[in-house]
Design a protein that fits this description.
The protein has helices spanning about 10-15, 40-55, 100-115, 150-160; strands at about 1-5, 25, 30-35, 60-65, 70-75, 75-80, 85, 90-95, 120-125, 130-135, 140-145. By secondary structure, it is α+β, with helices and mostly antiparallel strands. The two termini are about 15 Å apart.
């Protein structure tokens, strides 16, 4: 993962050229360039997005599966690229790969919390676990195999593991 040596402002970032061949996130003004997700990672997110989009009224729920920059805050600039986003209730889904470090995962959750995302579903590739992180008070409360998480997300996760949709 490549990073910048100086921080950028929101206005400076808007003037920069769009990164076409990688994923760009900005964390506390620091630009982070990461390789695009691999095929299996993308397939998991896409299948989960399609499943989620059929679970509710399309007039009440919007599932975005295309990569986009979600502005968490303008100062210091933080923009994340979720694997997919479920809008109306502002849920976020993260598909984790083996390359994600514990520090990166904690940073993502902290940023989503600051962006007032009420719940983040964390799907671990290669396992049947789908964790949920919900805002509790002023911080994210992590739950393992929470009963609050949608059953279809857990079932979907198990189905992918059975079909060997693991990330390398």
């Amino acid at each position: 993962m490549a990073t910048t040596t100086r921080t950028v402002t929101y206005e400076e970032w808007l003037e920069m050229p769009v990164v076409e061949d990688a994923t760009e996130e900005v964390v506390n003004g620091e630009i982070r360039i990461m390789p695009r997700p691999k095929f299996k990672h993308t397939l998991i997110a896409q299948k989960l997005g399609k499943l989620l989009s059929t679970q509710g009224d399309e007039n009440l729920i919007l599932v975005l599966m295309a990569p986009f920059g979600l502005i968490i805050r303008r100062f210091p600039l933080t923009s994340r690229v979720p694997d997919l986003a479920v809008f109306l209730k502002k849920n976020i889904v993260e598909v984790l790969s083996s390359a994600n470090t514990r520090l990166e995962r904690a940073g993502n959750l902290r940023d989503y919390e600051q962006g007032r995302v009420p719940e983040v579903w964390v799907l671990h590739s290669g396992s049947a676990n789908c964790r949920s992180a919900r805002v509790a008070g002023k911080s994210m409360a992590h739950t393992k195999n929470s009963r609050r998480r949608p059953d279809f997300a857990s079932a979907f996760s198990r189905r992918l593991v059975r079909r060997n949709f693991h990330l390398a």
